[in-house]
Amino acid sequence: MSKTVVLKCGGSTVHQLSDSFFQSLNALIENNWKVMIVHGGGPDITNMLKALNIETEFVKGQRKTTEAVLEIAEMVLAGKINKHLTNLLQQKGLNSIGISGSDGEMLQAEFLDKENLGLVGKVTSVNRSVVSLLMENGYIPVVAPLARTVTHDTLNVNADLAAAAIAQAVGAQKLLFVTDVPGILDESKQLIKEITPSKIQSYIEDEVITGGMIPKVQSAMTTLSDTLKEVMIVSGQQAFIENDDFKGTKIVREQEVSST
Ligand SMILES: Nc1ncnc2c1ncn2[C@@H]1O[C@H](COP(=O)(O)OP(=O)(O)OP(=O)(O)O)[C@@H](O)[C@H]1O
Ligand SMILES: [Mg+2]
To answer: Which of 87, 96, 123, 164 is the most exposed place for a label (fewest CB within 10 A)?
Structure first.
């Protein structure tokens, strides 16, 4: 049976992906995993907005998106970063095709909170035919997190939430959030190897988990299912597979805590 893994590559790490990261990616492919990638782009979007003197503001971790911000977000996500990542994969010998979530009506969305966030989308449905077509033909789809409304307006979508919605829609067995930290760190900055939703909830309340880590753990908690049994947070700066085991933080349902 084919197994699918969705990797979300953070904008925080997309320019620093290490050789050992690609070795782990290759190991997945050699083990017959079908791979697809969704990417973010926060820092590049912020830099471009700054260069063009366009104001930007975050509300509860999501970027407030005006028409001007959306124009830049689309240019940076579907242009600069999407092509950078696709080219990088090709350089490593991995066939990949970059697309925007707004292509082929792949990601459909409605306004998340038009009044406070502007042109930010909440994914309502995913048309998996485009990515399935690519994966079945040996390509890694590289998806920029943009979506369309039913009236064909483009919306900016948080990449963590987009990756989770896609993972669910394609029936992925694994979802990996590739970011700039080795995983979830506890109050003493030690790596947590395995964590369940109830512990995550208390870490959010105690502000041990903050900022950009929040949409990751929240999407993990809403996406875990009988098919998608584990979501991982891993680093893009090192190997995420070592001795046949995944390295980082494993988020599992309460009943699936490993006995070791
Ligand atoms: N408990 C925690 N453990 C580890 N990192 C945490 C924790 N709480 C907050 N963070 C922050 O979460 C950040 C990762 O999320 P961030 O949104 O910055 O990156 P990304 O999602 O990979 O990139 P992008 O948002 O551009 O796609 C870390 O760099 C760290 O600062
Ligand atoms: Mg983020």
So the answer is: 87
